[in-house]
Design a protein that fits this description.
By secondary structure, this protein is an all-alpha fold. The protein has a single domain, classed as Helix Hairpins (Orthogonal Bundle), CATH 1.10.287.70. Helix content is 84%, strand content 0%. Helix 1 crosses helix 4 and helix 2 packs across helix 3. The radius of gyration is 21 Å and the shape is elongated.
């Protein structure tokens, strides 16, 4: 019985250690990719502000729409009706996919590094 308990504690400690390793690698990866991430976020915001100006929305509403669109959530409470704003919204969705891809790629890389280090 004590052997099972010790094995459980050891596996729990290993799981915590692996998780810490993962987050260390993820943070390092995101730090290294920060110029790309910040550029994509800036492009999403600028594009969103242009869309908002074309639509006559407030800055807050424009930025809200930009990130809702970029994350492809699309609640539908704000939607462009101006032709150019529609095209820019598609561009924003693409930029959001790129942003998501960078985050996912960093996460996958962090998992690979954490698994390589684990005994």
């Amino acid at each position: 019985m004590e052997d099972d308990e010790q094995a459980f504690k050891a596996s729990a400690i290993d799981a915590v250690t692996d998780t810490v390793e993962f987050f260390d690698h993820l943070l390092a990866g995101l730090t290294a990719l920060s110029p790309i991430l910040l550029t994509l976020v800036a492009l999403i915001v600028i594009n969103g502000l242009i869309i908002g100006r074309l639509q006559g929305w407030s800055r807050g509403d424009a930025i809200y729409h930009a990130f809702i669109n970029a994350t492809t959530v699309g609640y539908g409470d704000f939607r462009p009706t101006h032709g150019l704003a529609k095209v820019l919204s598609v561009v924003n969705a693409f930029l959001g996919l790129l942003l998501t891809g960078v985050f996912v790629g960093a996460g996958v890389f962090a998992v690979e590094l954490a698994v390589q280090i684990a005994p």
